[in-house]
Specification:
Number of strands: 9
Oligomer: single chain
Order of helices and strands: HEEEEEEEEE
Strand content: 35-45%
Radius of gyration: 13 Å
Number of helices: 1
CATH architecture: Roll
Structural class: mainly beta
CATH topology: SH3 type barrels
Largest sheet: 4 strands, mixed
Strand order of the largest sheet: 2-1-9-8
Length: about 80
């Protein structure tokens, strides 16, 4: 699977069913030694109704990659939304 095929897929958190973002909005951190993906970084987002700090999703938290969504399992950080 190519990264370009993942670009428009939504990221859904299995923990609470929330839509976290879109893969195309993320920065992807790679291990410089192995080239393996370490984590996905979603930027902070603010709006009238919602505010979210930046979110780091460890690659180990990815549960499934489907044709339309990526399912991750990430517990919210204490005191953050």
């Amino acid at each position: 699977m190519r990264l370009s095929e993942l670009h428009s897929r939504e990221i859904i958190n299995l923990y609470d069913g929330a839509r976290v973002g879109i893969i195309g909005e993320t920065e992807i951190l790679f291990d410089p030694e192995t080239g393996e993906i370490q984590e996905l970084l979603l930027p902070a987002r603010g709006g009238i109704w919602q505010r979210r700090r930046s979110l780091a999703i460890p690659w180990e938290a990815v549960r499934r990659i489907g044709p339309e969504v990526m399912i991750v399992e990430v517990q919210p950080r204490e005191g953050h939304s």
